Target: Periplasmic nitrate reductase, electron transfer subunit
Amino acid sequence: MKKFITVAALLMLSACSGQQNQAATAPVNVQSLAGNQPVPVTQDAAAMASYPKKGHAISRNFAEQPPLIPHKADYSISLDRNSCMSCHAWNKAERMKATPVAKSHVIDAQGTLNGKNYFCTQCHVPQADNKGALVGNSFKM
Ligand code: HEC
Ligand code: HEC
Model:
């Protein structure tokens, strides 16, 4: 056993030193198929959208509007797991200080989600401060 560990440790050491050797070699020059074309116009990455830190409900604009999501919305929704429900399910909402999913979304008194309401982001969209205007607008009255 001891022998095995020593051999394994030696192997790991040599693997590491191999990496160090590689890092010391000259930088790789990648040439594009179009030759060395200069890039005349560069653009900064767009500002990241910022979501409200503490989710407070955003007032609705019309009856039956799916309320806007006042927080980031990249929680995964997959076939076997809906992460939104880890806060908005009826039995978790109070503890997570979130509004339980609407009565219209469930099929029984225990709050079992209706299949047609499973993909939350099909109807609910996040509200974010997007910093820059996304689309120009020249509307005049
Ligand atoms: C970590 C917990 C958590 C997760 C996960 C979560 N939310 Fe929320 N959500 C909240 C909290 C807290 C609020 C603010 C209180 C409120 O209005 O419910 C909120 C608010 C909302 C609201 C506004 C409710 C209203 O009455 O205006 C919607 C809609 C919503 N979330 C949808 C979603 C969706 C869709 C997902 C998944 C993509 C999701 N949430 C995931 C905690 C969470
Ligand atoms: C088919 C569209 C649709 C889907 C899918 C959907 N919702 Fe909704 N949701 C609505 C509408 C419309 C309302 C407002 C009317 C109502 O209360 O039924 C609403 C209301 C809500 C509310 C506010 C409830 C209240 O009492 O104020 C929450 C929270 C919510 N949805 C969360 C979710 C979550 C989480 C999911 C995914 C598990 C989801 N919704 C899926 C359309 C949808």
The chain has three helices and no strands. The two ends are 84 Å apart (CA to CA). Residues 11 and 17 are 10 Å apart (CA to CA).
